[in-house]
Specification:
- The structure is a single chain.
- By secondary structure, the protein is mainly alpha-helical.
- The chain has one domain.
- 84% of the residues lie in helices and 0% in strands.
- It contains 3 helices and no strands.
Length: 80
């Protein structure tokens, strides 16, 4: 297993833990943050066949994940 694959697995494990802690503690904000990180990771991997550097794909993926987090936190603010 390459170091990059191992790093990806660790990232998914850590963000899944953040998501699970948010669910178990009933913390909407923490759940949205964990989901946003997982969305960022998914987009990074979805863009892999298109090519481009890992840096570029990471910027796009985590930027879109950050937008999800921002929208989620605003939605939580107005619905709570």
């Amino acid at each position: 297993m390459s170091a990059y694959t191992l790093l990806q697995l660790v990232e998914v494990l850590l963000t899944s833990v953040v998501l699970m802690v948010g669910v178990l503690t009933r913390s909407s904000t923490l759940t949205v943050v964990g989901g946003g990180f997982l969305i960022g990771k998914a987009i990074l991997n979805i863009l892999a066949p298109e090519g481009g550097s890992v840096y570029r794909r990471s910027l796009i993926g985590y930027f879109l994940g950050g937008i999800f987090i921002l929208i989620g936190i605003v939605a939580i603010h107005f619905t709570s």
